[in-house]
Design goal:
alpha+beta; globular
Length: 355
């Protein structure tokens, strides 16, 4: 693995400026260096990335130092931090994906030119997610906190884009708003799409609940059918529902239980289920579309030999329950709806304190 990392770092060093433009787009070139706030792509000027030099060793291209924190590293570290990745396998996969894109681009000028991808395609969704930053200490974290979601478990599925394009319709000019970007994946973890929630930079109000004052503050792109935004890794038990905020609200009460948001009632009814699944909980929204999706998914699950159980909120959805009653009361409400073995597994043993 060390040899693999060294080889990847050398290849990335040869594309140092392209790497910076792609993953540290909040910075800019200054002479022989790229300057940015930190390796997580925060705006600022305390981190310096060397853009020229040998592939490895002292003074190598791609080596960086953060003057504010005294951190240093190479471009693999940049990919890890800017994408919010943990495992080296995922970092290496992202590095190889980037390098394959660079090899496909024509070398017509010293400034790398990104390959164009069809608008709304899975490739465009993956690029949007990659270009966005982790949610820690961003407007996304504030937005979720105001929705009663104090702790986000498995936050790698969510990212923040401070200037995400928005067009009311095809004939309107493009606007930019801050947005929460959610990664839509298939059962193997491959990105198939992205979901955007545009946010109000001026704060939270009880009507829009922190969403931007635009006609459609939520939109998805890429391939959604059968796929979902996933929180945790599912094996034999899974909770599914429609909205991201709904599932994150349930995660506040049951942080050890894997969950997935299908993003709409129609997509919930058509969601693909892991072949290892033995019990499926369906978090229903209290409306006509939610009831229809519940019935359709229960039939599909039972036909596959999977036990299917409904989870019902007191109010219209579980985020309303969380904001009205708090995580402890929500957990108590869920406790009586879970199978007995899951109470032992996910509440008595698996739950951490979230209050």
């Amino acid at each position: 693995m060390a040899g693999d990392a060294s080889e990847l770092a050398r290849h990335l060093a040869r594309e140092a400026e392209a790497v910076c433009r792609h993953y540290l787009f909040n910075g800019r070139r200054q002479g022989r260096y790229w300057t940015v706030g930190d390796a997580r792509n925060t705006p600022g000027r305390s981190m310096f990335v060397r853009l020229s030099g040998p592939d490895y060793g002292p003074g190598a291209a791609g080596h960086w130092t953060d003057a504010a924190s005294a951190e240093h590293g190479d471009l693999l570290d940049v990919i890890r931090e800017s994408c919010g990745l943990v495992d080296f396998h995922d970092v290496a996969a992202e590095a190889r994906r980037f390098l394959s894109l660079q090899r496909a681009e024509p070398r017509r000028s010293p400034t790398p030119i990104r390959t164009s991808v069809p608008a709304g395609s899975p490739e465009a969704a993956q690029r949007l997610f990659t270009m966005s930053q982790p949610i820690r200490r961003t407007l996304v974290e504030t937005y979720l906190h105001n929705r009663g979601i104090k702790a986000v478990h498995d936050a790698g599925a969510l990212r923040f884009n401070p200037r995400c394009y928005y067009r009311p319709d095809d004939g309107s000019p493009t606007e930019t708003w801050p947005a929460m970007i959610a990664r839509v994946t298939d059962l193997d973890g491959r990105i198939t799409g992205a979901h955007r929630t545009w946010l109000d930079p001026d704060g939270f109000d009880p009507i829009r609940l922190g969403k931007a004052p635009v006609d459609t503050p939520r939109r998805a792109m890429g391939g959604l059918l059968g796929h979902a935004v996933r929180f945790g890794s599912a094996d034999d038990v899974l909770v599914v529902g429609e909205g991201i905020e709904t599932m994150l609200s349930l995660r506040c009460a049951l942080p050890a239980m894997p969950m997935a948001a299908a993003l709409s009632a129609n997509h919930l009814a058509a969601m693909l289920l892991p072949f290892t699944l033995r019990r499926l909980y369906i978090a229903r929204d209290d409306d006509a579309a939610g009831c229809m999706a519940l019935g359709a998914l229960i039939k599909r699950a039972e036909a596959a030999g999977i036990e299917a159980l409904a989870l019902s909120p007191r109010r219209d959805d579980f985020n309303e329950d969380l904001r009205a009653f708090g995580p402890r009361a929500l957990r108590a409400k869920l406790r009586i709806q879970l199978a007995r073995q899951d109470v032992v597994r996910f509440i008595r043993q698996g739950t951490v304190r979230t209050e």
